[in-house]
Amino acid sequence: MRLLTKSNTQFKKAITKLPLGVSSNFRYWGEEKTLYIKKGKGGRLWDIDGNEYIDYRLAFGPVILGYADARVDDAVREGIKIGGVFGLATELEYEVANRVSRMVPAAELIRFSNSGTEAVMAALRIARAYSGKDGHVILEGSYHGLFNEVMWYAEIEDWDPKKGDPEILPEGDGIPKIIKKLVHTTPLNDANAIEDLFKKKKDQIGAFLMEPIMGNACSIAATKQYMTDIRKLCDQYNILLIIDEVKTGFRVARGGAQELYGVKADICTFAKAIANGYPISVVAGREEIMRQFGKGVAHGGTWTAHSVALSAASKTLEI
C-alpha cells in the first residue's frame, strides 16, 4: 500500500506559503494526494515518501530523453561555466537557432523565450503587427498556455445549434471580457467551418492559431486533409497560420508536426521537448514576418537565451 505521510505533512507546511501548496495549479491533486518529488531518473520518479513511479507524462512533456540524462546534464554544466545570463548575446544563440532552422524549414528566423506561453504570446503579437488585424482564431479544446488571449472556450453543454454559434467564455476569473471581441473558435477537422468564419471575419482576423495534435484533449489529431485545407484557406483569405508545436515539436517527427503533415506554417512555436526539461522556447517563422521584431514589435526578457538552457537545447537537438 502506498503511503503519503511525508507528502501530506509537506502539503500542510507548503499551503501556508503557497496557494494550493504548489507553484502551478496543475500540480495540486487534493489535500491528501498532492505529491512532492525527491528525484527523477530516466522514466521514473521517487516521492519524498520513497514511493517509486513510472512517469508516462514526463513533466507534461518536456523530458523527452528521460530525467537526469547524463549527456544533456554534462552540456548544462558547461553552460554554467559560461556564466548564465548577461543582458547581452552569446554565440550559443546562433548555434541553436541554426540547428532549429535546419530541422524545421518554416523556421527561417528565430527568437528565444522561456516558456511555451511566452512563445505563443510573441507569435500572436508579431502576427497582429504583420497583418494589421487584431483578431485570431483558436480551435475548440486546444491549449496554448496561460494568458488572456487564448484562455477561452465554446460553451456547448446547453448549446442549441439552431440558435447560432455557441457562446465563448473565459477559462477562469481575471480574464478581461473585452478580449472576447478578438477571439473566435472553430472545431478541429472542419474546414468548412473555418472557411465560413474567414468569409465573415477576414477583415478582423489576423491569425489562425492551432495545435495539430491537441495534447490537453486526449491527443485528438488533425487529419492530413484538414491541415492541407487550412493552409490553402489561410493563403486565400490572407490570414497567418500559426502552428503551435510546443508539444509536438521535435517529438512526432524530427521536424515536428509540420514534417509529419507536410504543411509549412507562417509562424510556429516550440518549447517542451527542445531542451529535455530546461526552460527555453522558440517562436519562429518566415523572414519577412520575423523581421517585424526589428521594426517596432517588442520582444525580450531578462532570462531569454540563458546559457544553461541554450546548452541543454543544443545537446538535446543534437541527440
Concise summary:
The protein has 319 residues and is an alpha/beta fold. Helices cover 31% and strands 18% of the residues. It has helices at 5-14, 70-82, 91-103, 116-131, 191-201, 224-236, 256-261, 287-290, 307-318, and strands spanning 37-41, 44-47, 52-54, 109-113, 135-139, 152-155, 167-170, 183-186, 205-210, 213-214, 220-221, 240-245, 267-270, 281-285.
Q: What can you see in these coordinates?
A:
The protein has 319 residues and is an alpha/beta fold. The chain has two domains: 5-54, no CATH class; 70-318, Aspartate Aminotransferase, domain 2 (3-Layer(aba) Sandwich). It is 31% helix and 18% strand. It is built from nine helices and 14 strands. The chain has helices at 5-14, 70-82, 91-103, 116-131, 191-201, 224-236, 256-261, 287-290, 307-318; strands spanning 37-41, 44-47, 52-54, 109-113, 135-139, 152-155, 167-170, 183-186, 205-210, 213-214, 220-221, 240-245, 267-270, 281-285. It has a seven-stranded mixed β-sheet with strand order 4-14-13-12-9-5-8, sandwiched between helices. Strands 1-2-3 form a three-stranded antiparallel β-sheet, with no helix packed on it. The chain has a two-stranded antiparallel sheet with strand order 6-7. Helix 3 packs parallel to helix 9 (307-318). The protein is globular, with a radius of gyration of 21 Å. It starts with a helix and ends with a helix.
